Amino acid sequence: MNTEFLEALRDLEKEKGIAVDVLLEAIEAALLSAYKRNFGSLQNARVHIDRETGDFKVYSQRTVVEDVEDERLEISLEDARRIDPRFNLGDVVEDEVTPRNFGRIAAQTAKQVVVQRIREAERNIIFEEFANREGDILTGVVQRIENKNVYIELGKTEAILTPSEQMPGENYQHGERLKTYIVEVKKTTKGPQILVSRTHPGLLKRLFEMEVPELQEGVVELKSIAREAGYRSKIAVYSKDENVDPVGACVGPKGMRVQNIVNELNGEKIDIIKWNPDPSKYVASSLSPAKVVAVEVWEDEKVARVIVPDYQLSLAIGKEGQNARLAAKLTGWKIDIKSESQMADLYPEYSEEGQTDFDDYADEYTDEYSYEEDASPILPDDLSYEDNK
């Protein structure tokens, strides 16, 4: 080793951000291990690299004791003071024992250590870059598919899309560009592991934020999301500005904004409704596209009974209960749906007389936009809910 080697280490410090002292300490530790391995030394030893010249030396270390039991590890006080009168019991005496042919081993070891540290530094840089992007969208290229796991190339690293995070019915092809949501970034011995999702509620949220400027600016708020990936989604939006229509902003001119999101999600149906601080109106809107006649709420239990016209009952419940289930996820309320005839059977006083105003009532409660293109619902992490029974 020489000054050129030290200069190379300083260049690496500037380029990769690895301190020279850290590299030299790692090289010293590796050289010590190589010395013991190649020369069968059982004695205590130390390797020192001169920070100015790059020269290295190996020193044996023996502790000063009164009675010597192992000459490789210990030295008597009398012998130590022959070397230097200042030695006392417990001190360590060092003797240079650098082997003549140790230079080649040192060079190989130093190279291995430097290469390893460079790899670790690059992995740390990648980890820090993507760890700060958890909860964000990234676009990558499908590199390969192994054991149903889809590996997505992201420049110097790759992300893993596991089967549980893949949307039903999607087929991924090599070279296909794909938008995914970063769920988690882990540190492993082989470098950072980036786990992504196509089913996470956050994916829909980020897609709307990318497409709708009003969401980015804070003019429109996305209050809640419910999603069953690949099938249907519901989102609730709100604006404090009375002059801004939050639903229209998300739909976009001629439906282009929501259409772009539907295309990205391969035809997932998306219902966009207006959030309302009044629970009864919010619950009624959440059952879009069904029309609601009346809503009765029990706020302490967070339970709502919704009455719909007989011909709207199946639409309100949805296929296999999907619409009602998503409404429950979206609002955080348990929703009990009854038709008018069911209510009449349960409560005889529920007569035909008061139903003349139901159409007006329904118009008051339904303020939503349903985009039918095949969709799936999204549930935010901070939303607790009960499914409709």
Description:
The chain is α+β, with helices and mostly antiparallel strands and 389 residues long. It has 3 domains: 3-123, N Utilization Substance Protein A, Chain:P, domain 4 (2-Layer Sandwich), CATH 3.30.1480.10; 133-199, Beta Barrel (OB fold (Dihydrolipoamide Acetyltransferase, E2P)), CATH 2.40.50; 202-371, K homology (KH) domain (GMP Synthetase, Chain A, domain 3). It contains 13 helices and 16 strands. Strands 5-6-7-9-8 form a 5-stranded mixed β-barrel. Strands 1, 2, 3 and 4 form a 4-stranded mixed β-sheet that branches. Strand 6 and strand 7 (157-161) form a beta hairpin. The chain is elongated, with a radius of gyration of 35 Å. InterPro entries: KH_dom, KH_dom-like_a/b, KH_NusA_2nd, KH_sf_prok-type, NA-bd_OB-fold, NusA_N_sf, S1_domain, TF_NusA. Residues 135-199 form the S1 motif domain. It is found in: Cytoplasm. Keywords: Cytoplasm, RNA-binding, Transcription, Transcription antitermination, Transcription regulation, Transcription termination.
Question: Layout of helices and strands, plus pairs?
Answer:
Layout: H1 3-16, H2 20-39, E1 44-49, E2 56-65, E3 74-76, H3 77-83, E4 92-96, H4 102-131, E5 137-146, E6 149-154, E7 157-161, E8 177-188, E9 191-197, H5 201-211, H6 213-217, E10 220-228, E11 232-239, H7 246-251, H8 256-264, E12 269-274, H9 279-286, E13 294-298, E14 303-308, H10 313-317, H11 322-331, E15 334-339, H12 340-346, H13 358-365, E16 368-371
Parallel strand pairs: 2-3, 7-9, 11-12, 14-15
Antiparallel strand pairs: 1-2, 2-4, 5-6, 5-8, 6-7, 8-9, 10-11, 12-16, 13-14
Helix pairs in contact: 2-4, 5-8, 9-11
